[in-house]
Structures are given as C-alpha cells and as structure tokens.
Amino acid sequence: MPLPGGGAFVPAPPARPPGSAHAGLNRVSTQALTSLAQAAAAAELGIRPGDVRADWSDDAGLLALRIVAPVAIPDLSEAGAPVDLSAWGGSVWERCAAAKGRILDSVARLSGTTLSRVDIRVSGMRAERRPAVLGRSVGVPHG
C-alpha cells in the first residue's frame, strides 16, 4: 500500500514471537473455584465434596476461603480399645490445622489463584469404621 510521499506501508513485526502466550484474560468462575475447594476440603477431612460448604471473601485484594464441613472420626461405638488417632491424622483440631495449608496449596496450585487464607468451621462429625485416605488433597503428589 503506497503512503503519501512515495513510501510503502510495511506492517510492524508481531509484538510476541509466534507460539508465545497470547494477550487476553483467563478467568476461573466462582462455581469452578468453589467445586475445587469442596473437593480439596473433602479429601482432607475424609468426607464427600457435597458435605462441604465453601464461601469466598475479599481479603485486601486476595481471596479468603471459608470452609464449613463435618469431619470424619472413628466410630466410637465399635471401638473396643482406645482409638489410635495417628491412623486418622491426629485429633480433629490437629487435622483441621494441617488441612488449612494443604487446601490452600491445592486450590492455589490447581486454579492459579492466590489465596490469603483458609478458615475451617467444623459443623459436625461423621463416624466412620476406618480412616479415609486423609491428607491427599486434589492433585497433590504423595510418595
């Protein structure tokens, strides 16, 4: 295409080399984040994802996750001897304290979202005959 004064129009080179990341925006919906948080919390607490309620709030520009869920515990009606809590990952308090960090790591790593914190409110207990595979958050490799 001729330009005034006799020059020719030459398109500018691409701003990024071919095959590099494209400009734009990726979004993970609130529902997708919530489902991910429910799955991660359920894996940590030994329950079903449908038993977990996850709510999000703003924490100085980051996401804060609030989990409300029951926790799996040993069925005490069948325990003839003292229960070995180490097989269950410790007391409910210890398990929830440890679960916070693992839930935060799982959700952040899988979604690419930065979370400021995870708060857990225990809403009840679910008696189980044997411990679920606890501490195995979604996508967390274990050796």
Question: What does the model show?
Answer:
It comes from Sinomonas atrocyanea. This is Asp23/Gls24 family envelope stress response protein. Residues 1-23 are annotated as: Disordered. There is one protein chain. The protein has a domain at 42-75 and 84-126: Alpha-Beta Plaits, CATH 3.30.70. Helix 1 runs antiparallel to helix 2 (92-111). A hairpin with a 2-residue loop joins strand 1 and strand 2 (62-74). The chain is of the alpha+beta class and 143 residues long. Strands 1-2-3 form a 3-stranded mixed beta sheet. It is built from 2 helices and 3 strands, in the order H-E-E-H-E.
Chart the SSEs and their pairings.
Elements: H1 30-45, E1 53-59, E2 62-74, H2 92-111, E3 115-128
Parallel strand pairs: 2-3
Antiparallel strand pairs: 1-2
Brief digest:
It contains two helices and three strands. It is of the alpha+beta class and 143 residues long. This is Asp23/Gls24 family envelope stress response protein.
The coarse silhouette is elongated
Write down the Rg: 24 Å
Tell me the fraction of residues in β-strands, as a range.
15-25%
Distance between the termini: 63 Å
User: Based on DSSP secondary structure assignment, what is the total number of beta strands?
Assistant: 3
CATH topology of the domain at 42-75 and 84-126: Alpha-Beta Plaits
Instruction: List SSEs in N-to-C order.
Output: HEEHE
Give the mean pLDDT: 81
The helix-and-strand class reads alpha+beta
- CATH second-level architecture of the domain at 42-75 and 84-126: 2-Layer Sandwich
Bin the helical content.
25-40%
Strand numbers in spatial order across the main sheet: 1-2-3
Task: State the CATH class of the domain at 42-75 and 84-126.
Answer: Alpha Beta
Number of helical runs?
A: 2
Which runs of at least 5 residues are low in confidence (pLDDT < 50)? 137-143
Q: Main beta sheet, described? A: 3 strands, mixed
